[in-house]
Write a structure and sequence with these properties.
Length: 249
Amino acid sequence: MSSSISEVTRVVLVTGAAGGLGAAVARRLAEPGTALVLCDLDPAGLETVAGSLDGTPVRTQVVDVGDAAQVDAAVATAVEEFGGLHVMVNNAGVIAPNARLHNLTAADWDLQLRVNLMGVVHGTTAAIRVMRKAGGGSIINTASVAGLTAWAYAAPYCATKAAVVHLTKVAAVEYAKERIRVNCVCPGTFESGMSAKIPREAMAAMEAKHPLGFGTPEDLAGAFAYLAGDESRWTTGAAIVVDGGYAAP
Ligand SMILES: NC(=O)c1ccc[n+]([C@@H]2O[C@H](COP(=O)([O-])OP(=O)(O)OC[C@H]3O[C@@H](n4cnc5c(N)ncnc54)[C@H](O)[C@@H]3O)[C@@H](O)[C@H]2O)c1
């Protein structure tokens, strides 16, 4: 079923929307009545995802989430084109090559801090400004089980994802009175553009630690749909683990 702009009752912005998980979340949330603003560094990838959302009002915007002004501009697109912002999905993320701490460069740290942490800070801040005026909303951050458990060779990734989990909790506490819910999803490993960068032997060892094996982006999308919708109205500050049992032991 398709929606026209006049029938839009929910506006969702997804960052990292050209990637494996962002695209799956966009497709899952593209229900009748929902309009989407899809953001990524990759314009061709964005067009591919938008093209798969037949009948859903969609805008695409090339955005570097490390740049606060670009994130503000994307939120402004949601407001100007569709009349508001109800759900903000801060999903863009990067991982640097595997390395122990003494081999990491300043650039490895800078990139992951800029995208994984400051990207979420920028998205959360921009969304809060709009949602406060509107009387509420739902912010969903993509963290990782790497933010809850220690992965060797991935210190910046683990540290930035742990920071996202804690940022989520602080924002939840600060804005609950204004009916802005802030939660994160902590995925285990699934195949995507990001996991393709991890050495295959490391991936095999990682898969052995997932009792249900690796997941797919679609296995995660339901958690985002839950947090985006009214069924989660009493859920805030949560870090929802969806990991095929990885973090259970
Ligand atoms: N793949 C996994 O196993 C896994 C596990 C846990 C968490 N995650 C998290 O899931 C999220 C999505 O990752 P994915 O697995 O779909 O990877 P992906 O590489 O397929 O997608 C990430 C997307 O983010 C975009 N991006 C990167 N830097 C950006 C920037 N500065 N501004 C805007 N967009 C940018 C990329 O272009 C890409 O489209 C990330 O936050 C990642 O850390 C992934």
